[in-house]
Amino acid sequence: MSPLEGIEALAGLMPIRFHLQKISKRSLIRPFKLPGNHLLKTLLNDNPPSTKTPNPHNIGSLTNCQKSLIKGHLPDAHTKTLGIFPLFSPGNRIMDIFPNRFSFIPVNKKVENCNNIRGHELNKTVLRCSSESQTALVITDASIKNDIATSISHIHSFNCPLVKTVHHASFVTSTEAELFAIRCGINQACAINNVSKIIVVTDSIHAAKKIFDNRLHPHQIHSAAILSELRTFFSSNESNNIEFWECPSKLRWRFHSDVDQDSRSFSISPSYSTKISWDYCKKIDCDDSLNLWKMTFQASDKKGRNFLDLLDDNF
Questions:
Q1: Are residue 41 and residue 161 in the same domain, yes or no?
Q2: To the nearest whole percent, how much of the chain has pLDDT over 70?
Q3: Taking 60 as the threshold, does the pLDDT of residue 303 lie above it?
Q4: Which of 113, 132, 209, 253 is most buried when burial is the number of CB atoms within 10 A of its CB?
Q5: What range does the domain containing 171 cover?
Q6: Contact 196/250 with Cβ under 8 angstroms?
Q7: pTM (2 d.p.)
Q8: Torsion from C-alpha of 189, 195, 196, 199, nearest 10 degrees
Q9: Interatomic CA distance for residues 123 and 125, integer angstroms
């Protein structure tokens, strides 16, 4: 018998049975995480109408002939969701109306000493912001300890005291925490008078790009809130713009290190029940599937004889 499981392990492929098990678990989790007034729950509600004016989209109110004509509820739901959230509809998106008002400045990793170069660029940016009254500098970071996320943003502006925002959330992913920190920082920066340029410095540039991602994703509630703020900010003056600068954590840039230390200085224990985000559920379910795969792989005799048994998770 060929060592098929060993080949899959070398290729980094999870066995198909575990992959299907993970997908089936996610399909069961997702409907329960939707709010009660979500369009999909309305469509999938097969109970008889409880009011005198039943919802015409309720599946329970459709005739058998109508049900047979429906090819699927997801395309219909997607179309109606665009009507509910005009911020993401084509032609009305912020990248359609203000395509030149936002930009991303990642680290050029192809250049030698790229981190040192980025450090000098950020230092010049701080000096420029300290002398320009119309520029706000937002530095964000987030950390997770004991399943509790701390999102912090520092807002620097000309001749104004430092503004800090601190928020905690339980059972969320690092991307959600980082995006929420950016959301709070932009909200505070937009509230400052006479600001025409916002510079956001973050070590999670991928989270910042989620703001302008038109596809459906678990972080869309934060994207919608940020886009609403930016739409108002851009509409108030044609010169208003925003930049997102990447600052790797290993750079140890002084201003970002201050935010990072603040985010790690909190030690909080949840004292009440909290809701678990859909993205966090996916992460936990994926971790469970991987752990099950590891245990099955270690106990299997199909992997071949060239694999060493793992004694510790750290190796």
A1: no
A2: 63
A3: no
A4: 253
A5: 88-264
A6: no
A7: 0.64
A8: -40
A9: 5
Answer whether residue 271 is part of any domain: no
Phi, psi of 89, rounded to the nearest 5 degrees: -85, 140
- What SS3 string covers 268-305? CCCCCCCCCCHHHHHHHHHHHHHHHHHHHHHHCCCCCC
Closest of 233, 230, 207, 229 to residue 219, by C-alpha:
207
Q: Answer yes or no: are the C-beta atoms of 135 and 158 closer than 8 Å.
A: yes
40 with 107, same domain: the answer is no
| Co-location of 121 and 157 in the same domain | yes
Read off the tokens for 192.
Answer: 């400052």
119 and 249 inside one domain: yes
On whether the CB atoms of residues 186 and 232 are closer than 8 A, the answer is no
pLDDT per residue as tens digits for the range 78-113: 444 444 455 666 667 888 899 899 999 999 988 888
68 shares its domain with 102: no
State the alpha helices, DSSP H only, in 173-300. Answer: 174-190, 205-209, 220-236, 254-264, 278-299
pLDDT in tens, 46-62: 555 555 555 565 555 66
Residue 140, token pair as written in the block: 């964000």
Residues 68 and 108 grouped into a single domain: no
Residue with tokens 């410095």: 201
Residue 216 lies in a domain: yes
pLDDT of residue 198: 96
The helix/strand/coil state of 167 is: strand
Q: Whole-angstrom Cα distance, residue 24 to residue 17?
A: 11
